[in-house]
Amino acid sequence: SFRMERDGASYRMVDDDQFTWQILATDCEFTPDGALLVSDWVNGWNQPMKGRLYRYESNDPRARAAGLATAAILARDARAESDLRLVEQLEHADRRVRQRAHIELAKRAPATTPLLSRLALENPSSTLRRHALWALGIQARRHGVDLSALLPCLDDPSSRHPVHGCIGQI
Questions:
Q1: Peptide bond just before 157 cis, omega within 30 deg
Q2: Separation CA 129–CA 136 (nearest Å)
């Protein structure tokens, strides 16, 4: 792990911690419950032709509970979720939950188009607006949904930022 601080137009490392040693990590992935899986090709590519898989978990009980709650959401069938529940998930802390929700809402076109449009135009949460817009973008591509009603989003000051933008992400 490491922490960076601004240093002029760049950054500098102010803290680094190597939590594991003597590992030839070939890949890593976060599990639905928030653990980190790391694959290790033992002692290099030629010998002994063995691999290991390490699982790292947080010691923080709140982080573990949040991870388990996220895993439970991701294990459910999104098709069985109500529109309201999916809208709530558009602001979830985990990107995978937000993405799952906006993709499912997009599949429900044209029934969810008015709801998504209202969220994109009126909701104060930039995260929720962004995911609503991504869902509407999917609907436009797959179902020909007209997005002209979203033109007011172009006047949104946050739309000028490429990451947080209202329209910039469609």
A1: no
A2: 10
Q: Which two tokens stand for residue 72?
A: 């439970």
Comparing CA positions, the residue from 105, 97, 102 lying closest to residue 76 is 97
Task: Respond yes or no on whether the N-terminal peptide bond of residue 48 is cis (omega within 30° of 0).
Answer: yes
pLDDT (tens digit, 9 = 90+) per residue, 51-72?
899 999 999 999 999 999 999 9
User: Tell me: the pLDDT tens digits for 108-147?
Assistant: 999 999 999 999 999 999 999 999 999 999 999 999 999 9
- Which pTM was predicted? 0.76
**Residue of 102, 132, 138 whose CA lies nearest to 118:** 132
AA identity, residue 120 = A
Peptide bond into 114 cis (omega under 30): no
Query: Apex CA 17: angle with CA 15 and CA 21, to 5°?
Result: 155
Beta bridge partners of 16: 2
State the pLDDT at residue 167. 44
